[in-house]
Amino acid sequence: MRIVIGLLSLTLIASCSIAKSKIDERESDRMIASTPSNVDTRQPFIDWYEEAKASGFSGMVLVAKGQAKLFEQGIGYADKEDKRPFTADTVVDILSMTKQFTAAAILKLEEQGALSVNDTLEQFFHNVPAEKQGITLHQLLTHTAGLKANYKSDYTPATRQQLEQHALNSRLRSRPGEAFNYSNIGYSLLALVIEKSSNQSYEAFLHEHLFLPAGMKDTGYRIPSWSEQDFIVGYQRDSRYRHHRLLAGVGSVFGISDRWGTPVEQSWAKDGPWWSLHGNGGLLSTLNDLHLWYLALANNSILSEASKDKLYSPYVEVTSGVFYGYGWMVRANQAGTRRIINHGGANDFFDMDIYNYIDDGVVLMYVTNTPLQQSLMPKLSNVVRKEYIQ
Q1: One Pfam family from the UniProt entry (predicted)?
Q2: Segment 273-290, tens digit of pLDDT
């Protein structure tokens, strides 16, 4: 036993030494790949940019006001092996920000007269248990239906039928309408409602009624024609979890790459991610496409003003001063006069967030494959507020 422990200790020491060497090499690579592309020349932005480079941040940031891009910057590599830098056209997993598109699709169907947010589960599904028959689409949209958070892990096979049966037969966490309980399952049920109401697949409906009208050609699950060279890559060593980083360090001793891969290299169904993720996460997009989406919303070319009011309304308080709308967190500035909406998303390897200052026409978006560096984003949002927001 002592011999085994001794060998393990030597392995870990060696792995730490090699890992440090690899990290130093990686930091050098990131510096090379960090040439500013459209950096605001005011000192607060330069200071943030230099701090991000020095910290080892790897990702993409885009700040825009209307059509004008104020701050567009890639730092580090979307793919370390190929030394492919981040750009605003890098295809990324937008994670839980998928929910805003599910919510927008429900509102689009309401505009078309196919459903109402006040409709109940029993209008769309058979054999709904009595305690869930009165759950409304509004409650699913605001995470107040009382459903549990998750079904299976993101890349574990789960069909439409399995998700539906599990959601309808699982135990409620609270009575419908009584409390906020964040539920990915609830948004997957909404994706099924979209399919049942439109007679189209979830992705096909979003593609036809949301993405194409907004000019978004690089957003979806399977429909866009992406190249393998377009995708963000995740790495064990850059994961938010220690066990991934430990395995990466040990693996490097034996010459094993720490590459986790791209989202589409993971286990997916033919129509996109498995239904434990479908509708609540996993949509792929680019920051340029997301910029087009916010322009389309601002111009009312996707949803009417009345539907947007529903999208952005603060329905239920999540924490002090922060409310949930339809797929969005909603808050106000310190004066309580200007609305800020945001929604983040994260998994083991990626982190993403969007701050949309809707009364000022300014949007801040970022994505990273080094999620441990996410503390940089509040600093950037502070800079944006001070420089651009009234």
Answers
A1: Beta-lactamase
A2: 999 999 999 999 999 999
